[in-house]
Amino acid sequence: MTTTHQGFWANLFAPENSLGQLVDAHDQPITVGDLNPTVLVLLSAYWCPPCRAFTPAILDFLAKHGDEVSVLYFGRDYNETMQTFNLRTKPYAKFQWHARNIDTFKRLKVAYPSIQGIPTLFAVDRDSGKIYTERGAASLRISPDTVLADWKNGIDITQEEEDAYWNRSRASNAPEVDIVPHLPLDTIVDATGATVSYDALNPFVLFYFNAVWAHSEGDKLTPELVAFAGEHPEDVSVVHYSLDADAADADKSLQGTNFHRFAHSANLVETAYQLDKFMTKDNAYNTLAAPRVIVVEKESHKIVAKHHYGILIKPSEQVSAWKQGEPGITDDEVNAYFQKRWEEAQKKKAEEEAAAKKAEA
To answer: PROSITE patterns per the record (predicted)?
Structure first.
């Protein structure tokens, strides 16, 4: 029997869109009709920090409105393994990962210009396809206690209120957390598999959280860390923390390195999950996700660098800055780095589109 979709569902399930099978949180096939009356269509991805920061608010909202609301995840994850890892603890319905999700996402952006990126959250009536809001990623957090009733009564935040929400400072006054006691330090081994004590590591420990599925176009970070560690053999120790389910995949990430590592076990994923909850307790944006490097001063456990961008952008200045208790790079420099990458990508895209049009002429 052919299902006739209405409203938002007609656009989402348009024949030209390639969608994976719609399944529940246990991977059992379902239809939209099996969802709760209000469906939160979540455009998101594991690799997106604001998306991960949104997760606690969504889960809390679901816990309070479990009989009224369902979350339907449409992923922009790099691959199936990333999506599976991302959703393993979340009670979401979802479309199984599909390589052409990006094409469907682009079509949705044309149909709904409010989609500027991710996370995006639409609240949709299950039966009619009526869109209650296209600004749910902001409104759900602005007024979580009343927003469901507001949506149903035709009340939504304004564009100005949404812009003000996204433009507000993400700076947190939460104190730095000590991650070291939460790590399985007694399982650290060297490249030969020999046990290494934490005390035997160099003054600055780079905890490198990684997985083979965590990179969009191949692992470009690991070679940079190899070179960086090679330049600072007396100051830096890299300790690799694998989020791969398979030990063989973890080993693949380490090929060509002399990194220390946490001995692979099934417990690493659960330990990282608990560490993430600890790190985000007072700062939702301090998420633990692969790939990420956290640099710790061994003796004090002080986090001297929260990420690896200083190593990528200004590698020669990092260790000296860390010795002064400084992160070695500013937020403005990191933002400029990403702005430049985005401009280069846009230029390349424009050149490719121009070349394609010329070839068709």
So the answer is: THIOREDOXIN_1 (PS00194), THIOREDOXIN_2 (PS51352)
